[in-house]
Amino acid sequence: CFHQVKIWNLTKRQCIRTIQAHEGFVRGMCARFCGTSFFTVGDDKTVKQWKMESPEYGEEEEPIHTILGKTVYTGIDHHWKEPVFATCGHQVDIWDEQRTSPKCSLTWGFDSISSVKFNPIETYLLGSCASDRNIVLYDMRKSTPLKKVILNMRTNTLCWNPMEAFIFTAANEDYNLYTFDMRFLESPVMVHMDHVSAVLDVDYSPTGKEFVSASFDKSIRIFPVDKGHSREVYHTKRMQHVITVKWTSDNKYILCGSDEMNIRLWKANASEKLGVLAPREKAAMNYNQKLKEKFQFHPQIRRIAQHRHLPKSIYCQIKEQRIMREARRRKELNRRKHSKPGSVPFVPERKKHIVAVVK
């Protein structure tokens, strides 16, 4: 049912607890930094804090705290070190766990905010995505917004790199992901282009070297941070639009939730053997990995390493988009050829998608 929260035991693959959390949809959920409790927000305009442990025999399933807000909240995230959390809806509210009203409310523009995320390293920094195509950065200490970048299309969510303080990746409606350095928002560090439909969620690996993205095109992809194309794509016949995705803290698995109401568990490294490895197995795997790296640019090795089977729908859409991209490039070349020199400037791919940066 849509107003429930379920807690799962991943090793046994069983649901161990079901909570009737909210009236209406549960819009957001986050754990406290110590792991003893978690928070949920829903369509009933409430924020609730729950114990992570199951209630004792005969004890009722009730929240520790309930805060009644004024508007519907669309997302929530907890501070990484302090008893502070942030919610978003019509504005970003910063809450102290002990109080029933927000410490401060941050707003810049008048549109609904879809997600808010705390920076895991510089813990006083927050990032939020609004439906007016903005990515806004806030400083909790100053109680004011810092700056915002406006893109061509709406950003659905963002995720901070857990190893590099100023780097974050945004999942956009225009099928791309953008990795930004928050100090230089004029152009992204990297544009990641492989999905063929809107990107709905993104999450970093604990090493900070890769991230996983979930898309409306019924697939999830793993991107290296410094590469424009994905190293891996996961899909199944039954998996529909993928709404949310998470990378586990042991860097071994990826969890995704999709439209057909299933949670799927994937290996972060598809060919990795699960379980205990014998020393000789480990040595052989390392040796094979080094061989792959050494000969990665050999045409036949590269073809094998890069080939992935894709569903027909995605394959056809990739082909179609390649044709469209080529047509746009040809049109621009023709326009430049038949125009006054300098009147049609060269715009790099990284700057094409940025409308403005406001400070």
UniProtKB/TrEMBL annotation:
UniProt-listed Pfam families: Sof1, WD40
This protein's record includes keyword Translocase: no
InterPro entries, per database record: Sof1, WD40/YVTN_repeat-like_dom_sf, WD40_repeat_dom_sf, WD40_rpt, WD_repeat_DCAF13/WDSOF1
Keywords: Nucleus, Repeat, Ribonucleoprotein, rRNA processing, WD repeat
WD repeats: 192-233, 235-276
Residues annotated as domain Sof1-like protein: 268-354
Family: Belongs to the WD repeat DCAF13/WDSOF1 family.
Protein name: DCA13 factor
Organism: Pycnonotus jocosus (Red-whiskered bulbul)
The organism's taxonomic lineage, starting at the top: Eukaryota, Metazoa, Chordata, Craniata, Vertebrata
